[in-house]
Design brief:
Distance between the termini: 73 Å
Shape: flat
CATH topology: Jelly Rolls
Radius of gyration: 22 Å
Structural class: alpha+beta
Oligomer: single chain
Number of strands: 10
Number of domains: 1
Length: 210
Amino acid sequence: MSRKRVFRVLAVGAFALSLSQAAIAQVLSRHVAEYRFGPEQVSMNLPPGDTIYLKTITLPPGEDTVFVTLSSTGDTHGGAASWFSALINGDFCNTGNEGAGFAPGGWIPLQKHINGAPGGDGGGGPGDMHDNGIYYTWCCQGRGGTQNKIELRMASSIQGQPVFVERSHYYIDSARGVSCKPADPIPGDASKMKALEDQLPPGHKHQHQH
């Protein structure tokens, strides 16, 4: 076999290997597909709220990116928002800062209904509107090749006002490498957003905008 032919064979082999490795990097491993039906789960507490799902899984070596998905339905009482967080090995999957829903860092509001007219269809005040879909995925940093404890928590934005989920499904997947990271900033977006935030009414601003 000529040198040129050997080189072509090696080049094709290397290209095929790189494609194979890229394909493997995109494969998701599903570790959990579970559901919980029966009585509603409820929290009446501010963060840290209450655990609604807990699972320990062993990730394959090299699979350090974890996706945790909650698919559920729920409702809230008294104008409270239902706040949710996902933790892996005791750490928030995405810390971030507070959002427009005034949830603290690491939490996200997935339901909130105005506590006023025309009113809801339940016994928890005008804001009690049964039932509304919830679907959210957290991107988390796990530890491949060892056990990882995954926890979902729910809290109420108003202490003493209950928030609920029921008929929930839980999915946990992993992928090779470290893929969960902040998105690149949009050019010019910071100054544009600052100008818009300066025009917000005081009731809409959250902590980092004061």
